[in-house]
Write a structure and sequence with these properties.
Layout: H1 2-12, H2 23-37, H3 42-81, H4 83-108, H5 113-181, H6 187-200
């Protein structure tokens, strides 16, 4: 909740939205710190390699989150925030239509010409209010349809952002695995001993 409130305030005052370290970045930082403390050991060297790549993958994720926010999430939130106002105008239109129907019914029920003439004035006023609200609601709905068409483009942008991220993350992960597995290491001997022990059992 505190983070959401911070993001809300930051956005309202016009500053860029802060994106904190992703979990992958945090993992990379932890590995780098631990690897630095044990840099003389094979384990420490493995941690340094992985920490560097986890951090780079995290930075890529960081970039993806930021781009996704500005290219899709923010436009989506802006569009969704206007739905309440649209629904209010539609409810107003419905209420004015009911008022117009009621005014017409009173005219039909009039018993004298004078009463009918007087009630017709209320019909004219109700019709005018209804027509004005109808035009306003129509314009708002047309604007929403246009915005929804624009949102399709934002959805497409989001898919591009995600594909680019996952491709980059995959390439980095493969490179990380190759560097970890192909380094000269005592870890290979330990792995072979572990495998041999499992086979004997």
């Amino acid at each position: 909740p505190a983070y959401r409130f911070e993001d809300f305030v930051t956005e309202k005052i016009g500053n860029d939205r802060e994106i904190r370290h992703t979990y992958t970045e945090q993992l990379g930082i932890c590995m780098l710190n631990a690897g630095s403390d044990m840099s003389a050991s094979d384990y420490g060297q493995a941690l340094l390699i992985m920490g560097d790549y986890e951090n780079r993958i995290g930075e890529s994720e960081h970039k993806m989150i930021k781009e996704a926010f500005y290219k899709f999430v923010k436009p989506f939130m802006d569009s969704a925030s206007k739905e309440g106002a649209i629904n209010t105008e539609r409810r107003t239109l419905t209420a004015l239509r009911l008022d117009l129907d009621a005014a017409k019914n009173r005219v039909r029920a009039a018993k004298t010409a004078d009463e009918m003439k007087e009630l017709e004035q209320f019909v004219d006023e109700a019709q005018k209010k209804f027509d004005e609200q109808y035009e306003l609601t129509r314009e708002i709905l047309e604007e929403r349809d246009q915005k929804n068409a624009e949102m399709v483009c934002h959805v497409e942008d989001l898919t591009t952002v995600q594909v680019e991220y996952f491709k980059q993350a995959y390439d980095l992960a493969v490179e990380m695995q190759q560097k970890v597995m192909n380094r000269p290491t005592k870890g290979k001997d330990a792995r072979q001993r572990k495998v041999s022990s499992s086979d004997e059992e």
